[in-house]
Amino acid sequence: MLGVPAGTWLGQQSNWQVPIALLAALGLVSLVTIAALLPTSRPEEEPAAYATGPDVWRFGTVLAAGTLSAAGAFTGYTYIVTFLGDVSGFSPSTVSALFVVFGVACLAGVSIIGAVLDRFPQSALATAVATQAVGMLGLYAFGAHPVAAVVFLVLMGGALGPVFMTAQNAMLHCAPGRTDIAFAANSGAYNAGIAAGAALGGLVLSLADVRGTFLAGGLLTVGSCVALLGGELLRGRRRPV
């Protein structure tokens, strides 16, 4: 949330190597801190947490929806600087400020979803994914209008953090085995979606224009909504009467 605008600003004040070098240095500090302070124990020596309602079908649905959502988000977001400059007409300094707005929206989304997540765990995930879809498709359709672009950028930012958070929370309820393994699977799938989305966006960009990346990303996110809805409908039919 804070790293992207801070890194963008730092790169503009110097060059792109400086924020990369700073990240490497901070990563090294983190590595040394973890190695020095984190207790070591074998996994089998620790009690594993298990889900409240293990469900292989629900687990697969959440995993697929999270991957599609991540791919959709980063199909467009990877190229957001080009979009805001070429399509929305914002200056480079304004784009940097909009990154801060995006990060604040992400933080606000996490805070809002966190307040209701325990009461509505399933609908929270669906709401976050649907909000992301609206934000991305809204940018595609109305991104040439600066005010509309800011509104839909905020919607997209407000959903990006909550999608991953609510998917991780779902693992506490539906993981078929240990929840730590489920967390790792969800994190790995989400990061695979990020990489796939960035690659897909690059392909779309070479064939169409930057607006097309948000159309493709929005449609992938709609696919995530369909996966969640279809998974719930099929899971309901599989329950014994």
Fold topology:
Elements: H1 3-13, H2 17-37, H3 56-77, H4 80-87, H5 92-116, H6 121-142, H7 146-174, H8 179-207, H9 210-238
Helix pairs in contact: 1-2, 1-5, 3-6, 3-7, 3-8, 3-9, 5-7, 6-7, 6-9, 7-8, 8-9
Describe it for me?
The chain has 241 residues and is mostly helical. The chain is 81% helix and 0% strand. The chain has 9 helices and no strands. Helix 5 (92-116) runs parallel beside helix 7. The longest helix is centred in the middle third of the chain and has 29 residues, at 146-174. The model has no long low-confidence stretch (mean pLDDT 89).
Task: Give descriptors for this structure.
0% strand; mainly alpha; globular; 9 helices; 241 residues
Largest sheet: none
Distance between the termini: 46 Å
Number of strands: 0
Query: Runs with pLDDT <50, length 5+?
Result: none
- Kindly report the average pLDDT value: 89
Helix fraction bin:
over 70%
Number of helices: 9
**Quick one: overall form?**
globular
Task: Estimate what percentage of residues fall within beta strands.
Answer: under 5%
What structural class is derived from the secondary structure elements?
mainly alpha
Radius of gyration over all CA atoms, rounded? 19 Å
Report the order of strands and helices. HHHHHHHHH
Brief rundown of the structure:
This protein is mainly alpha-helical and 241 residues long.
